[in-house]
Amino acid sequence: MATYDTHDIIVLGASAGGVEALKTVIGGLPSDLPAAVFVVLHIPAGNVSLMPSIINREGTLPAHHPNDFEEITHGKVYVAPPDHHLLVDCEFVRVTRGPTENHHRPAVDPMFRSAAVSYGPRVIGVVLTGTLDDGTAGLQAIKKRGGLAIVQDPKDALYSGMPSSAIENVAVDHILPINEIAPMLAQLVQSPVPDDTLYPVPAGMQLETDIAAMKPTGVADANKLGKPSGFTCPECHGSLWEIDNGKMLRFRCQVGHAYSINSVLEEQSRALESAIWAALRSFEERIAMSQRLADRARDRNHVRVAQRFDAIVHETETHADVLRQILLQNKDLPTSEEDRAS
Asked: What is the CATH number of domain 9-198?
């Protein structure tokens, strides 16, 4: 890919509600767009992604899931495949199974960050509908490297979490309803960019990109990104390192799993719910066993033994009822992406 002095790298990130939003934005781009477009839509690892075929049906730009080390070409749309990060490297794309970020793979942040490292001021980052805050840290990276930031108006988004987080933590250039984003992109790709040397790549930004690309030096040096937090990674249970990006506090473990504050809390909620269900199962087994032993003792006229096991049944049922009430009343334990609307 030749060197250009315009905004010719467009990266878009979306989560819940993102299919329709991406259809609108990419479908509204001209067929002769002098830029390459990269897309991350959160999708479960076991699912099939139909996003390329949807884009091909709705718009004029050809879309596909790229291969690792595929050359970047203007006028094409590169869509992250399920369970893989899409990274934007110099001249080519990387498709990797690096550590999850905010419990997602693909995730928006690593794609945004890699584009910022490789192309600096030439990048336009776009955050669309979604829950929680994936994309915010990546958009911060794009701005630090002199790029532009566009965010869907939260009032216009089906799910406002991702847009609201980006606006709160990033000096966004444009906040637009979904129908106005494509025309704005068509204008911005024609505009000149500032000198790349004015926006050097921070060491931490490069290191986090190396981690997503599964480079050994990036993983080994993960602890250089911040200070020990005292917390453990919800996925691998290793130590979490605290990364302070000014307004936004993030965490990353030594093998590379990365989290925002909100995603850490969400993962802790998941772990807590799992622990409560495991405890409830143990109580139910204890009740069943004690009841069987009490009945057996009564059959043999061992009254005191039966009474002792009856007391265990009563006590354990009380504890089990408490856990059931916690599970019934806890509204902070999401079960799906759509349930995590902000």
From this structure: 3.40.50.180
